[in-house]
Amino acid sequence: MQLVTTQLEDRAFALQFFTIVHEFGRVIPWLSRVTPLTFYTNPNHFRDQFLRRLGCTDPSDIIPYQFTSSDERQEYIGGLLHFRRAPESFKDQRNCALLERLHAEQFRFITCLQVRGMHRRAGHGRQIMERGLTSILRVHGKVWGVVSEPHLLPWYQSMGAKMLSPRDNQDALWLISWESTPTCSHSK
């Protein structure tokens, strides 16, 4: 298995985007801005609209990571998205303040960790997270994400995530972060 990056206008990202919308379209609020693009067939127009609707100006602001088989098929197993700046918004003022702080401190953002159904329960989600975090932290030093299911918090914490949000918040979403340091790594 390999973790690779792709471009927004690549056919590979179209497949990833379709699966993300299918799985998270009703769960992640910011996806509603880009869901109508699901069936665009012009890849350059899709990329430009995707960026515009998320308030991004540069294609490098969003990096899709894909976990694929290592053989010639390069079957899509799952992936995650890496943003320079998060498209998230919150109701709870504590989460809003955290978001402002994370943006001010130039934390990167990861979202849409996804493993295709037939490949679940084989440790692929952990592999995607660990490899993605290693790659992002090596270059940028700090990253954050949002957990929407409280039972997943211990799973992320087992990979070194620090919970930033209070357990009881109006959004029922929990902001988590990772930071690399010169002497230690996020993974075990």
Number of E strands:
7
% residues in beta strands = 15-25%
Tell me the overall shape.
globular
- Unreliable stretches (pLDDT < 50, length at least 5) are none
The number of helical elements comes to 5
Order of strands across the main sheet: 1-2-3-4-5-7-6
Radius of gyration: 16 Å
First-residue to last-residue Cα separation: 20 Å
Fraction of helical residues: 25-40%
Q: Sketch the major β-sheet.
A: 7 strands, mixed
Write down the secondary-structure element order. Answer: EHHEEHEHEHEE
Mean model confidence by pLDDT = 90
Structural class: alpha+beta
Descriptive report:
This protein is globular. The protein has 188 residues and is α+β, with helices and mostly antiparallel strands. A seven-stranded mixed beta sheet has the order 1-2-3-4-5-7-6, with helices on both faces. The protein starts with a strand and ends in a 9-residue tail after the last strand. It has helices at residues 11-24, 43-53, 93-104, 124-140, 153-157; strands spanning 2-5, 62-68, 76-83, 108-115, 142-147, 162-163, 174-179. It is built from five helices and seven strands. The longest helix is centred in the C-terminal third of the chain and has 17 residues, at 124-140. The mean pLDDT is 90.
